[in-house]
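In response to reviewer comment 3 from the previous cycle, which asked for concrete evidence that the modeling workflow produces usable outputs, we include below a single protein chain processed end to end. The sequence was submitted unchanged, and the resulting C-alpha coordinates are shown without manual editing.
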Amino acid sequence: MVSSDSWIRDLRPADIAEIEAALVVVEDRGLSWDEIMPADFPLPGMSALFDDVRDELEHGCGMLKLRGVPVGNYNEDQLRKIYFGLGQNIGSPVHQNRRGEVMRFIRDEGTDVGEKYGQITTATMDDGKPFLSSYARTLTNGALRFHTDRTDVVSLLCVNQAASGGVSTICSSVSVMNTMLDRRPDLTELLYEPYFRSRLGEEARVPEDVYPLPVFAQRDGKFTSHFSLTYIEAAQKTEVVPKLSGAQAEAIDVMLEVAAELSFEMILEPGDIQFLNSHVTYHGRTPFEDDQEAGLSRLLMRLWLSMPNSRPLPIDHAVLWRDTEPGQIRGGICQIPELQHGVD
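The workflow returned the following C-alpha coordinates.
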Protein backbone atom coordinates (compact mmCIF):
# COMPACT_ATOMS: atom_id res chain seq x y z
CA MET A 1 0.00 0.00 0.00
CA VAL A 2 2.79 2.39 0.91
CA SER A 3 6.53 1.90 0.71
CA SER A 4 7.74 4.31 3.39
CA ASP A 5 6.82 5.92 6.69
CA SER A 6 5.52 9.03 4.94
CA TRP A 7 2.17 8.42 6.65
CA ILE A 8 3.65 8.92 10.16
CA ARG A 9 3.75 12.27 11.96
CA ASP A 10 5.21 13.02 15.40
CA LEU A 11 4.04 15.64 17.86
CA ARG A 12 6.76 18.13 18.74
CA PRO A 13 7.39 19.31 22.31
CA ALA A 14 5.87 22.67 21.27
CA ASP A 15 2.72 20.88 20.10
CA ILE A 16 2.33 19.05 23.40
CA ALA A 17 2.86 22.29 25.32
CA GLU A 18 0.16 23.98 23.24
CA ILE A 19 -2.24 21.07 23.81
CA GLU A 20 -1.64 21.24 27.56
CA ALA A 21 -2.22 25.00 27.58
CA ALA A 22 -5.53 24.52 25.75
CA LEU A 23 -6.52 21.84 28.26
CA VAL A 24 -5.84 24.21 31.16
CA VAL A 25 -8.10 26.84 29.60
CA VAL A 26 -10.90 24.31 29.06
CA GLU A 27 -10.68 23.09 32.64
CA ASP A 28 -10.52 26.61 34.07
CA ARG A 29 -13.73 27.41 32.17
CA GLY A 30 -15.39 24.26 33.50
CA LEU A 31 -16.21 22.90 30.03
CA SER A 32 -17.03 19.22 29.66
CA TRP A 33 -15.31 17.40 26.80
CA ASP A 34 -18.45 17.31 24.63
CA GLU A 35 -18.94 21.08 24.99
CA ILE A 36 -15.61 21.83 23.34
CA MET A 37 -15.80 23.66 20.04
CA PRO A 38 -12.79 24.54 17.84
CA ALA A 39 -12.56 28.03 19.33
CA ASP A 40 -12.50 26.55 22.85
CA PHE A 41 -9.38 24.52 22.10
CA PRO A 42 -7.16 26.85 20.03
CA LEU A 43 -4.01 25.27 18.63
CA PRO A 44 -2.66 27.90 16.21
CA GLY A 45 0.86 26.52 16.26
CA MET A 46 -0.45 23.20 14.96
CA SER A 47 -2.48 24.58 12.05
CA ALA A 48 0.12 23.51 9.47
CA LEU A 49 0.11 19.99 10.92
CA PHE A 50 -3.68 19.82 10.73
CA ASP A 51 -3.62 21.00 7.10
CA ASP A 52 -1.05 18.30 6.40
CA VAL A 53 -3.20 15.63 8.08
CA ARG A 54 -6.25 16.60 6.05
CA ASP A 55 -4.26 16.69 2.81
CA GLU A 56 -2.59 13.30 3.40
CA LEU A 57 -5.94 11.70 4.15
CA GLU A 58 -7.75 13.09 1.11
CA HIS A 59 -5.00 13.47 -1.49
CA GLY A 60 -2.26 11.18 -0.20
CA CYS A 61 -2.35 7.54 0.89
CA GLY A 62 -5.58 7.94 2.90
CA MET A 63 -4.11 7.00 6.26
CA LEU A 64 -1.97 8.66 8.91
CA LYS A 65 -0.54 7.85 12.32
CA LEU A 66 0.08 10.77 14.69
CA ARG A 67 2.41 9.76 17.50
CA GLY A 68 3.31 11.21 20.85
CA VAL A 69 0.20 12.03 22.92
CA PRO A 70 1.48 11.54 26.51
CA VAL A 71 -1.58 9.53 27.56
CA GLY A 72 -0.01 8.48 30.87
CA ASN A 73 0.02 12.09 32.08
CA TYR A 74 -3.75 12.53 32.09
CA ASN A 75 -6.86 11.02 33.61
CA GLU A 76 -9.70 9.70 31.47
CA ASP A 77 -11.67 12.95 31.45
CA GLN A 78 -8.61 14.98 30.46
CA LEU A 79 -7.84 12.54 27.64
CA ARG A 80 -11.38 12.93 26.35
CA LYS A 81 -10.95 16.71 26.31
CA ILE A 82 -7.60 16.54 24.54
CA TYR A 83 -8.75 14.03 21.94
CA PHE A 84 -12.03 15.81 21.25
CA GLY A 85 -10.22 19.15 21.05
CA LEU A 86 -7.80 17.73 18.49
CA GLY A 87 -10.69 16.20 16.55
CA GLN A 88 -12.56 19.51 16.46
CA ASN A 89 -9.46 21.15 14.96
CA ILE A 90 -9.24 18.56 12.18
CA GLY A 91 -12.87 17.88 11.24
CA SER A 92 -16.40 17.78 12.65
CA PRO A 93 -17.25 14.85 14.97
CA VAL A 94 -20.47 13.02 14.01
CA HIS A 95 -22.70 10.58 15.88
CA GLN A 96 -21.50 7.00 16.23
CA ASN A 97 -24.73 5.42 17.43
CA ARG A 98 -28.42 6.18 17.85
CA ARG A 99 -27.86 7.43 21.41
CA GLY A 100 -26.00 10.40 19.98
CA GLU A 101 -22.51 9.53 21.23
CA VAL A 102 -19.75 11.33 19.36
CA MET A 103 -16.88 9.59 21.16
CA ARG A 104 -16.80 5.86 21.74
CA PHE A 105 -14.54 3.69 23.91
CA ILE A 106 -13.50 0.62 21.92
CA ARG A 107 -12.77 -2.32 24.20
CA ASP A 108 -14.04 -5.77 25.08
CA GLU A 109 -17.37 -5.24 26.83
CA GLY A 110 -18.07 -8.91 27.57
CA THR A 111 -20.49 -11.57 26.43
CA ASP A 112 -23.73 -9.57 26.43
CA VAL A 113 -22.80 -7.10 23.67
CA GLY A 114 -25.38 -8.60 21.31
CA GLU A 115 -28.20 -7.88 23.75
CA LYS A 116 -26.95 -4.30 24.14
CA TYR A 117 -25.98 -3.43 20.58
CA GLY A 118 -27.92 -5.70 18.24
CA GLN A 119 -28.09 -9.37 17.29
CA ILE A 120 -30.23 -11.84 15.40
CA THR A 121 -31.09 -14.63 17.82
CA THR A 122 -32.67 -16.80 15.12
CA ALA A 123 -29.38 -16.91 13.18
CA THR A 124 -25.99 -18.08 14.35
CA MET A 125 -22.35 -17.40 13.60
CA ASP A 126 -19.74 -20.10 13.06
CA ASP A 127 -19.27 -20.53 16.82
CA GLY A 128 -22.98 -21.25 17.31
CA LYS A 129 -23.64 -17.94 19.06
CA PRO A 130 -26.28 -15.41 17.90
CA PHE A 131 -25.42 -13.37 14.82
CA LEU A 132 -24.01 -10.08 16.13
CA SER A 133 -24.44 -6.68 14.52
CA SER A 134 -21.31 -4.97 13.24
CA TYR A 135 -21.52 -2.51 16.14
CA ALA A 136 -21.63 -5.32 18.71
CA ARG A 137 -18.66 -7.14 17.13
CA THR A 138 -16.52 -4.03 17.51
CA LEU A 139 -16.97 -4.26 21.29
CA THR A 140 -15.74 -7.84 21.63
CA ASN A 141 -12.17 -9.15 21.62
CA GLY A 142 -12.74 -11.01 18.36
CA ALA A 143 -11.28 -10.37 14.93
CA LEU A 144 -12.91 -7.76 12.72
CA ARG A 145 -13.08 -8.34 8.97
CA PHE A 146 -12.18 -5.61 6.50
CA HIS A 147 -14.82 -2.91 6.56
CA THR A 148 -15.43 0.83 6.44
CA ASP A 149 -17.10 3.11 8.98
CA ARG A 150 -19.93 5.51 8.22
CA THR A 151 -17.79 8.63 8.22
CA ASP A 152 -15.28 10.43 6.03
CA VAL A 153 -12.48 9.71 8.51
CA VAL A 154 -12.36 7.28 11.43
CA SER A 155 -9.85 8.10 14.15
CA LEU A 156 -8.58 5.98 17.05
CA LEU A 157 -6.52 7.13 20.01
CA CYS A 158 -4.68 4.25 21.65
CA VAL A 159 -4.85 4.64 25.44
CA ASN A 160 -3.76 1.12 26.35
CA GLN A 161 -2.98 -2.06 24.45
CA ALA A 162 -3.94 -5.67 25.10
CA ALA A 163 -1.57 -8.32 26.35
CA SER A 164 -1.59 -9.80 22.86
CA GLY A 165 -3.24 -9.19 19.49
CA GLY A 166 -5.50 -6.30 18.57
CA VAL A 167 -3.36 -5.30 15.58
CA SER A 168 -4.91 -3.00 12.95
CA THR A 169 -5.03 -4.40 9.43
CA ILE A 170 -5.37 -1.88 6.60
CA CYS A 171 -5.52 -1.91 2.82
CA SER A 172 -6.29 0.54 0.04
CA SER A 173 -9.78 -0.01 -1.37
CA VAL A 174 -8.63 1.78 -4.53
CA SER A 175 -5.85 -0.78 -4.97
CA VAL A 176 -8.32 -3.59 -4.30
CA MET A 177 -10.62 -2.27 -7.01
CA ASN A 178 -7.78 -1.79 -9.52
CA THR A 179 -6.40 -5.27 -8.85
CA MET A 180 -9.83 -6.83 -9.27
CA LEU A 181 -10.37 -4.84 -12.44
CA ASP A 182 -7.18 -6.37 -13.84
CA ARG A 183 -7.95 -9.93 -12.72
CA ARG A 184 -11.73 -10.23 -12.76
CA PRO A 185 -13.40 -7.31 -14.53
CA ASP A 186 -16.66 -9.28 -14.63
CA LEU A 187 -16.83 -9.42 -10.82
CA THR A 188 -15.61 -5.85 -10.43
CA GLU A 189 -18.56 -4.65 -12.50
CA LEU A 190 -20.96 -6.38 -10.11
CA LEU A 191 -19.53 -4.47 -7.15
CA TYR A 192 -20.59 -1.22 -8.82
CA GLU A 193 -24.19 -2.44 -8.53
CA PRO A 194 -26.27 -2.16 -5.33
CA TYR A 195 -26.01 -4.71 -2.54
CA PHE A 196 -28.66 -4.58 0.17
CA ARG A 197 -27.41 -3.88 3.70
CA SER A 198 -29.19 -3.88 7.07
CA ARG A 199 -29.21 -1.02 9.58
CA LEU A 200 -29.28 -3.50 12.50
CA GLY A 201 -27.30 -2.08 15.42
CA GLU A 202 -27.27 1.37 13.83
CA GLU A 203 -30.56 3.21 13.29
CA ALA A 204 -32.57 -0.01 13.65
CA ARG A 205 -33.11 -2.73 16.23
CA VAL A 206 -34.33 -5.22 13.64
CA PRO A 207 -32.51 -6.48 10.53
CA GLU A 208 -35.43 -5.80 8.17
CA ASP A 209 -34.55 -2.09 7.90
CA VAL A 210 -32.43 -2.29 4.75
CA TYR A 211 -31.02 -0.04 2.03
CA PRO A 212 -29.27 -0.60 -1.33
CA LEU A 213 -25.74 0.70 -1.96
CA PRO A 214 -22.94 -0.35 -4.30
CA VAL A 215 -19.61 -1.49 -2.86
CA PHE A 216 -17.60 0.54 -5.41
CA ALA A 217 -18.63 3.93 -6.78
CA GLN A 218 -17.17 7.04 -8.39
CA ARG A 219 -18.16 10.63 -8.94
CA ASP A 220 -16.22 13.39 -10.69
CA GLY A 221 -13.17 11.14 -10.89
CA LYS A 222 -13.21 10.41 -7.15
CA PHE A 223 -13.55 6.84 -5.88
CA THR A 224 -15.44 5.70 -2.80
CA SER A 225 -16.16 2.33 -1.26
CA HIS A 226 -18.49 1.57 1.61
CA PHE A 227 -18.41 -2.03 2.77
CA SER A 228 -19.11 -4.29 5.71
CA LEU A 229 -19.94 -7.91 5.03
CA THR A 230 -21.86 -8.06 8.32
CA TYR A 231 -24.39 -5.48 7.05
CA ILE A 232 -24.90 -7.53 3.89
CA GLU A 233 -25.15 -10.83 5.78
CA ALA A 234 -27.72 -9.37 8.18
CA ALA A 235 -29.89 -8.22 5.25
CA GLN A 236 -29.58 -11.69 3.69
CA LYS A 237 -30.98 -13.25 6.85
CA THR A 238 -34.30 -11.47 6.27
CA GLU A 239 -37.08 -12.17 3.79
CA VAL A 240 -37.25 -8.59 2.52
CA VAL A 241 -34.35 -8.63 0.03
CA PRO A 242 -33.43 -10.92 -2.87
CA LYS A 243 -30.75 -13.49 -2.20
CA LEU A 244 -27.29 -12.79 -3.58
CA SER A 245 -26.49 -14.50 -6.85
CA GLY A 246 -23.53 -16.85 -7.00
CA ALA A 247 -21.60 -14.23 -8.95
CA GLN A 248 -22.38 -11.50 -6.40
CA ALA A 249 -21.18 -13.70 -3.55
CA GLU A 250 -18.04 -14.59 -5.51
CA ALA A 251 -17.34 -10.91 -6.12
CA ILE A 252 -17.29 -10.28 -2.37
CA ASP A 253 -15.12 -13.33 -1.73
CA VAL A 254 -12.58 -12.28 -4.34
CA MET A 255 -12.60 -8.70 -3.07
CA LEU A 256 -11.79 -9.86 0.47
CA GLU A 257 -9.08 -12.21 -0.83
CA VAL A 258 -7.44 -9.33 -2.71
CA ALA A 259 -7.79 -7.06 0.34
CA ALA A 260 -5.96 -9.62 2.49
CA GLU A 261 -3.27 -9.96 -0.17
CA LEU A 262 -2.68 -6.20 -0.33
CA SER A 263 -3.02 -5.48 3.38
CA PHE A 264 -0.44 -4.63 6.01
CA GLU A 265 -0.49 -4.32 9.79
CA MET A 266 -0.32 -1.10 11.78
CA ILE A 267 0.58 -1.52 15.43
CA LEU A 268 -0.77 1.20 17.69
CA GLU A 269 1.13 2.06 20.84
CA PRO A 270 -0.30 4.14 23.71
CA GLY A 271 -0.31 7.76 22.54
CA ASP A 272 -0.73 6.95 18.85
CA ILE A 273 -3.70 8.35 16.91
CA GLN A 274 -4.72 6.54 13.73
CA PHE A 275 -6.65 8.37 11.00
CA LEU A 276 -8.20 6.50 8.05
CA ASN A 277 -10.11 7.90 5.09
CA SER A 278 -13.10 5.55 4.88
CA HIS A 279 -13.62 6.25 1.18
CA VAL A 280 -10.27 4.80 0.11
CA THR A 281 -9.27 2.32 2.84
CA TYR A 282 -10.59 -0.84 4.46
CA HIS A 283 -9.59 -1.69 8.01
CA GLY A 284 -9.88 -4.68 10.29
CA ARG A 285 -8.46 -6.04 13.52
CA THR A 286 -6.84 -9.23 14.75
CA PRO A 287 -8.35 -10.87 17.87
CA PHE A 288 -6.86 -9.85 21.19
CA GLU A 289 -6.50 -11.03 24.78
CA ASP A 290 -6.48 -8.72 27.78
CA ASP A 291 -4.58 -9.29 31.01
CA GLN A 292 -6.24 -7.09 33.61
CA GLU A 293 -3.90 -8.14 36.43
CA ALA A 294 -0.93 -6.95 34.38
CA GLY A 295 -2.71 -3.73 33.43
CA LEU A 296 -2.87 -4.76 29.78
CA SER A 297 -6.48 -4.20 28.75
CA ARG A 298 -7.06 -2.79 25.29
CA LEU A 299 -8.69 0.66 25.30
CA LEU A 300 -9.09 2.93 22.30
CA MET A 301 -11.04 6.16 22.00
CA ARG A 302 -12.80 6.62 18.66
CA LEU A 303 -14.00 9.67 16.76
CA TRP A 304 -15.84 9.77 13.45
CA LEU A 305 -14.92 12.95 11.59
CA SER A 306 -16.71 14.66 8.74
CA MET A 307 -13.98 16.46 6.82
CA PRO A 308 -14.00 19.98 5.37
CA ASN A 309 -12.01 18.80 2.32
CA SER A 310 -14.04 15.65 1.68
CA ARG A 311 -14.77 14.31 -1.81
CA PRO A 312 -18.09 14.36 -3.69
CA LEU A 313 -20.16 11.20 -3.44
CA PRO A 314 -22.60 9.73 -5.96
CA ILE A 315 -26.17 10.94 -5.49
CA ASP A 316 -27.44 7.45 -4.60
CA HIS A 317 -25.15 7.50 -1.53
CA ALA A 318 -27.54 9.94 0.14
CA VAL A 319 -29.37 6.87 1.48
CA LEU A 320 -26.46 6.48 3.88
CA TRP A 321 -24.54 9.77 3.97
CA ARG A 322 -27.55 12.15 3.64
CA ASP A 323 -25.42 14.88 2.05
CA THR A 324 -23.27 13.86 -0.92
CA GLU A 325 -21.64 17.20 -1.72
CA PRO A 326 -17.95 17.77 -0.91
CA GLY A 327 -17.01 19.48 2.33
CA GLN A 328 -20.45 19.11 3.91
CA ILE A 329 -21.07 17.67 7.37
CA ARG A 330 -22.31 14.17 6.61
CA GLY A 331 -22.18 10.54 7.64
CA GLY A 332 -22.57 9.16 11.13
CA ILE A 333 -25.66 7.47 12.52
CA CYS A 334 -28.95 9.27 11.95
CA GLN A 335 -30.60 10.31 15.20
CA ILE A 336 -34.11 8.87 15.60
CA PRO A 337 -35.67 10.18 18.86
CA GLU A 338 -37.82 7.13 19.59
CA LEU A 339 -34.74 4.89 19.34
CA GLN A 340 -32.38 6.97 21.45
CA HIS A 341 -33.61 5.65 24.79
CA GLY A 342 -32.49 2.36 26.31
CA VAL A 343 -29.43 0.35 25.31
CA ASP A 344 -26.43 1.15 23.18
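The mean pLDDT is 94. We consider this sufficient to address the reviewer's concern, and the full set will be provided in the supplementary archive.
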